[in-house]
Amino acid sequence: MNPRNAGRVALAALPFVLATAADLILFATRRDRLPAQLASHFVGNGRADDHASQGSYIALVAILFIGTGALWTLMAVAAKFTGRGYQRLVASGYALAGALGYLMAVVMLINVDAAQDAQGRAQGVSFPMWHMAVALGVAALAFGLGLLLAALLPVAEAPAGGGPAGGGERTALAHGEVAGWARSAGTWWLLPVALVVLVGGIVLLPTAGWGAAVPALLVGVVLVCFARPYVTVDRRGITVSGLLPWPRIRVPLDRIEEASSRDIKALAEYGGWGYRLTPGRTGVMIRSGEGIVARLSGGRDFAVTVDDSATAAALLNTLIDQRRTEK
């Protein structure tokens, strides 16, 4: 593993390792004072309506942190984001680990010295809802810490190929020269929305159960993965991917007739944001603004909104010319 990836692994995994260790230590030091069956699920008024054995609860804690931590570490290593995009990705992991770690610890603490019935189930345990507000505060503090630590691990910007295209429609390449272009695309508000959805899933976990929490957590993770898609232009064509290698969208170079850069109105032209499929055109719309528009061999257009699209379109046209010359 190269040093940069090792640094990304350590930085992304650290909050989940610390949260797991803290909760396991808390469990080990309070185990003799915990009931055999912990109150583990609570309704909206904080009243417990389900229980879990000590072993089941601590196994859930370990699986939750290991699984979430592994996912975030994989995203951090696979992510092509640089600069602030990478820092926000790492910081969001810190926020998630902080909130989850706090809530899991609180559930154990409110069970300490609880009375038990004949089956060993905790009695008289309630979950004060103000802990949700504290969890959000912990998440905010952890997010700030994650930003600070991520800033200490410099990540070089991905080089853009071909240089500025200006108003030209081609990029000058010497015979046999290979070039590529890459840039992350996105809007500032999408990552905060993703974090809100994730925190909502965390809030639902102890109050509404897994049935309501898991969909919110999954949607939040998906939004984080695609909050800033990564657009690549090279001899393979146009590739749009998220933080993970899959899923991704690729338009092969041999399907592209020509490319241009223009201002795109996502709502008016494509009916909204995200992956759009409309008559005569498809596209990835993260925002309105400048973007690459590729005319495909079947007459359809494929577009993606991204900065520096003129450079990408010029390089695409040059690569198309080279492909045609080689035939």
Question: What do these coordinates show?
Answer:
The protein has 327 residues and is an alpha+beta fold. The protein is 50% helix and 20% strand. It has 8 helices and 13 strands. The protein has helices spanning 3-30, 54-78, 83-111, 130-151, 190-208, 210-225, 266-270, 309-326, and strands at residues 37-42, 48-53, 115-116, 122-123, 181-184, 230-234, 237-241, 248-252, 256-264, 274-278, 281-285, 289-296, 301-305. The strands form 4 sheets. It has a 5-stranded mixed β-sheet with strand order 9-12-13-11-10. The protein has a 4-stranded antiparallel β-sheet with strand order 5-6-7-8. A two-stranded antiparallel sheet has the order 1-2. Strand 10 (274-278) and strand 11 form a beta hairpin. Helix 1 runs parallel beside helix 3, helix 2 (54-78) packs antiparallel against helix 3 and helix 5 (190-208) packs antiparallel against helix 6 (210-225). The radius of gyration is 24 Å and the shape is elongated. The model is unreliable at 155-168 (pLDDT under 50).
Helical amount among residues, as a percent range?
Answer: 40-55%
**Beta-strand segment tally:** 13
Supply the number of helical segments: 8
Largest sheet: 5 strands, mixed
> How are the strands ordered across the major sheet?
9-12-13-11-10
Quick check: average pLDDT?
A: 80
